[in-house]
Design a protein that fits this description.
The protein is an alpha/beta fold and about 180 residues long. The protein has a single domain, classed as Response regulator (Rossmann fold, 3-Layer(aba) Sandwich), CATH 3.40.50.2300. It contains 5 helices and 5 strands. α4 (about 90-100) links the parallel β4 (about 80-85) and β5.
């Protein structure tokens, strides 16, 4: 079975989020968005994406803080990080690498470079969303990765209102969903 990979895009600039989303959009990926670092951390904790594409400078937690937090959280151990930012000095790139980023891409960026980098990152991570062509809102339990000793979760209330989620994740792991009219 082919499972969709989950990608979180975080940037406080909505037009850039949209551009990145359009650049990497594919039937193979479920793309989630967050407008700032705090919202991104909420989505990361709830949905555990395969890949996070983060800006460095944004409100709330910075991309570097998020990258370090991802690296320190065992539940996010398989999440790859691409820092996509205008910060292009050698010391910025070194800080991104030191924080644990898998890749550092500076803006303006080549869409082809971004697509290739995403594909490279996801070649190392396991898909954890839902099978393409199915209606995830009607799906039963879908095999997913749980932390040792964790029990599957069922949705008992609405997903976080602040999260701009663009699809449904495995309900046994995160139970994120797309609100109507997004």
């Amino acid at each position: 079975m082919a499972w969709r990979r989950t990608i979180l895009i975080t940037d406080n600039d909505p037009s850039l989020r949209h551009l990145v989303h359009l650049t990497i959009a594919s039937d193979e990926y479920l793309v989630l968005e967050a407008a700032d670092g705090d919202e991104a951390w909420e989505v990361l904790q709830t949905c555990r994406p395969d890949l996070s594409v983060l800006d460095v400078a944004m409100p709330g937690r910075s991309g570097l803080e998020l990258t370090r937090a991802i690296g320190n959280d065992p539940a996010l151990a398989d999440t790859r990080v691409i820092l996509l930012t205008a910060n292009d000095h050698e010391f910025d790139v070194a800080a991104g690498r030191a924080a644990g980023a898998d890749h550092y891409i500076t803006r303006p960026f080549s869409p082809l470079q971004l697509v290739r980098t995403v594909e490279e990152c996801l070649g190392h991570a396991g898909g954890r969303a839902f099978e393409p062509g199915t209606d995830p809102s009607r799906a039963g339990r879908v095999p997913g990765r749980l932390a040792p000793g964790a029990a599957p979760l069922n949705r008992v209330g609405p997903a976080p209102a602040s999260a701009r989620m663009r699809g449904v994740l495995d309900p046994s792991r995160a139970d994120c969903y797309t609100p109507p009219n997004l």
